[in-house]
């Protein structure tokens, strides 16, 4: 039901709220590329990166559905727990974990796992 993705940003100490995309999972890599370009000179800024990503998604998604933001209780170490991240996934594109220091990403629990930004995570 959809092409869902959950996107979570982090730096060395903190984790962003979870961004939910209902129909845009396959577009996550290009949306993250757009974010990386937009954040040049602001690498490492967790709050701005997460906010700008939501803005970029909003620019691409019409109407008032298919984009959400929710709190989570994850710490940075939780994001390294592949099994926890896989269990968090709805399936589809999976859970995408983005490091705002360099905008590399890893996906878990979905088809993007084999396409992660330089890092494969089953």
Describe the structure.
The protein has a five-stranded mixed sheet with strand order 3-2-1-4-5. The relative contact order is 0.24. The protein has one domain (5-115). The protein contains four helices and five strands; from the N terminus they run ββααβααββ. It has helices at 28-38, 46-60, 76-79, 82-88; strands at residues 5-10, 18-21, 67-70, 94-99, 104-108. With 122 residues, it is α+β, with helices and mostly antiparallel strands. The mean pLDDT is 94.
Shape descriptor reads: globular
How many structural domains?
1
Number of strands: 5
Rounded to an integer in angstroms, the radius of gyration calculated over CA atoms is 13 Å
Strand order of the largest sheet: 3-2-1-4-5
Which stretches are poorly predicted, pLDDT < 50 over at least 5 residues? none
Please render the helix and strand layout as text.
Elements: E1 5-10, E2 18-21, H1 28-38, H2 46-60, E3 67-70, H3 76-79, H4 82-88, E4 94-99, E5 104-108
Short structural summary:
The protein has about 120 residues and is α+β, with helices and mostly antiparallel strands.
Name the features:
globular, alpha+beta, 20% strand, 122 residues, 5 strands, five-stranded mixed β-sheet
